[in-house]
């Protein structure tokens, strides 16, 4: 089975006149179809750099990145995935509805199908009343929700998301997490998801990849065994298994994995 994302021995050095930063050092990562993988680690450990390399917004100093078995460049040109990054990246001259519908327009989806899909997405992110607004009339969190709706517009087989829920209030954030899990289960989409939140990573993921900075490396990979995505509802957040996995990720982040709870595997 072809991996959706294959990162092999990737190093990214940002060279400057006096010093250079090794943002990623010999990082490898493989994401299977339908798999949800979160990248977590302290600020500056290279999470965003890794995602940018996968999205072909930057190039590795050495090593290779492939997406759906193609070069990262080819996959970007073919628009094989949806992207939702920290900055919403909306087009200011387009309304909310027109921003969300943009990928559908680019792929020449007929107007009637486009309209109904945009209505569905507006409901999903709770912005039905703002369809005709422009981005600068929305709060940061609302803009972020528009960007997420746009990323989901074409039910992509891969989503690349960098702190997409960072600007949201806690209630909306949890709702969006539940929706994202449900959508991925429905569409079979794989996701590479950057976050600073341990509970968020655990709730969403099949695997949590723990990174450390200077140089940016993958130090641990924690398999999350919390049952199928379709069962990940609100009750999961209060379960003992959930807490145990959160603890395991926290310990891995602090470099203390000596006593892992039962049922949590690392490799
Ligand atoms: N364009 C760039 N030029 C120079 N250095 C860069 C560039 N982009 C990233 N870096 C450096 O690479 C390292 C990794 O940065 P990156 O943004 O990937 O980290 P991160 O884990 O996503 O951090 P955060 O959690 O704060 O968003 C940092 O030391 C950063 O300063």
UniProtKB/TrEMBL annotation:
<dbReference type="InterPro" id="IPR003593">
    <property type="entry name" value="AAA+_ATPase"/>
</dbReference>
<dbReference type="InterPro" id="IPR003439">
    <property type="entry name" value="ABC_transporter-like_ATP-bd"/>
</dbReference>
<protein>
    <recommendedName>
        <fullName>ABC-type quaternary amine transporter</fullName>
        <ecNumber>7.6.2.9</ecNumber>
    </recommendedName>
</protein>
<dbReference type="InterPro" id="IPR027417">
    <property type="entry name" value="P-loop_NTPase"/>
</dbReference>
<keyword id="KW-0813">Transport</keyword>
<dbReference type="InterPro" id="IPR017871">
    <property type="entry name" value="ABC_transporter-like_CS"/>
</dbReference>
<dbReference type="Pfam" id="PF00005">
    <property type="entry name" value="ABC_tran"/>
</dbReference>
<dbReference type="GO" id="GO:0015418">
    <property type="term" value="F:ABC-type quaternary ammonium compound transporting activity"/>
</dbReference>
<keyword id="KW-0067">ATP-binding</keyword>
<keyword id="KW-0547">Nucleotide-binding</keyword>
<dbReference type="InterPro" id="IPR050166">
    <property type="entry name" value="ABC_transporter_ATP-bind"/>
</dbReference>
<feature type="domain" description="ABC transporter">
    <location>
        <begin position="5"/>
        <end position="238"/>
    </location>
</feature>
<dbReference type="GO" id="GO:0005524">
    <property type="term" value="F:ATP binding"/>
</dbReference>
<dbReference type="GO" id="GO:0016887">
    <property type="term" value="F:ATP hydrolysis activity"/>
</dbReference>
């Amino acid at each position: 089975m072809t991996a959706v994302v294959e990162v092999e021995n990737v190093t990214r050095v940002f060279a400057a006149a006096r010093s250079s930063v090794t943002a990623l050092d010999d990082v490898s990562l493989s994401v299977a179809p339908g798999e949800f993988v979160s990248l977590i680690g302290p600020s500056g450990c290279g999470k965003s750099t890794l995602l940018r390399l996968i999205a072909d917004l930057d190039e590795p100093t050495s090593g290779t990145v492939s997406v759906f078995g193609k070069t990262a460049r080819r996959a970007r040109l073919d628009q094989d995935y949806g992207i939702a990054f920290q900055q919403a990246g909306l087009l200011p001259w387009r309304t909310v509805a027109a921003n969300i519908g943009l990928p559908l327009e680019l792929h020449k989806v007929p107007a009637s199908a486009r309209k109904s899909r945009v209505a569905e997405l507006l409901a999903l992110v709770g912005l039905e009343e703002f369809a005709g607004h422009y981005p600068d009339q929305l709060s940061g969190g609302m803009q972020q929700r528009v960007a997420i709706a746009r990323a989901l517009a074409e039910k992509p087989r891969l989503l690349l998301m960098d702190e997409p829920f960072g600007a949201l209030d806690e209630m909306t954030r949890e709702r969006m997490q539940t929706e994202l899990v449900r959508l991925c289960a429905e569409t079979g989409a794989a996701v590479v998801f950057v976050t600073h939140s341990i509970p968020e990573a655990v709730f969403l993921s099949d695997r949590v990849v723990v990174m450390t900075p200077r140089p940016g490396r993958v130090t641990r990979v924690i398999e999350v065994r919390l049952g199928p995505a379709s069962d990940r509802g609100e009750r999961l957040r209060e379960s003992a298994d959930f807490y145990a996995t959160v603890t395991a990720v926290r310990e891995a982040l602090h470099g203390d994995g000596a006593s892992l709870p039962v049922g949590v595997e690392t490799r």
